[in-house]
Amino acid sequence: MSDTYAELRFAKPSLRMRLGEWIVSKQPSGFGDAEAIRTGVPKRVLPKDAPMPDKFHRKFTVENWEAEGQKVVTVHPKTGKGEWHIIYFHGGGYFMPIFKEHWPLVEAMVYATGASITVPLYDVIPESTYHRANDQADAVYEKIAAEWGDDKLALCGDSAGGNMTLALALQRRDAGKSLPARLIPFSPWFDMAMKDPAAQDIQEKDIMLNIEAIRVLGEWWAGDRGVDNPIASPLYADLKGLPPIAIFQGRHDVFLPDARTFAAKAQEAGVPTKLYEYEGGPHVYMALTFTRESKDTVRLVKDFLDNG
What we know:
Blueprint: E1 6-8, H1 15-25, H2 34-40, H3 55-59, E2 60-67, E3 70-77, E4 85-89, H4 102-113, E5 116-121, H5 130-148, E6 153-158, H6 160-174, E7 182-186, H7 198-202, H8 211-222, E8 245-252, H9 256-268, E9 273-282, H10 292-307
Parallel strand pairs: 1-9, 4-5, 4-6, 6-7, 7-8, 8-9
Antiparallel strand pairs: 2-3, 3-5
């Protein structure tokens, strides 16, 4: 890759990555049918958050608390509170609670970085709105920053959580509030409307996301703001003044074109930015924690925290 801010980590996917992609492809995707989402989800019984594995209580120090009336979980290394604190926003198109696959990724990140990690279990759409989730995110930030300080606080998240990572930073900047030291979006959702036609070229490779389905969820999440609102869709935001950003993105993911556009825009705005791409990586490939690619990602996160 020619751009100095973009790096292809591996030219070919590992065998484990290919195996992981195959396994995921055999599972039903909640993001594959736009009409099923549009008509079925508003009538559903709201699914529950996947429970944190019991082993977390043996391996880590766990705190359960609430912010803005919504559940929050903080995981500290067993040796004590981490030097860094990462607020991790889980993905799920903003319409699904945390998946069981998120917890092993949180575990891997605690071990790799030595950081404390806080996971907001935010209310989801369409039963709730962006207002509730955003209010919780800001309240969590204020509480963590009061203890750790902004200079040892990072925002991270996957997919919709990657969107929240950027949106929270933008909202705080615009409100004149303090900002975290690092932004670490995983396979982030940049544009609620998925307007870039280049995404269609990747659609057949993406085993999880259907562009039309994502657009339905984007309309719901954007709500009264509209899909072009720069907080809902950070692809359209003025990025000046944001902290350093490290983006991690698989190449079998319809979000890839927007990741490239956003990274270029951030770099042009003077924001230190790095885009790491992984050949053959499906959407949120880092959740396949047994792969070389996932292990490489959490190592790079550790380096980004330590060295910027």
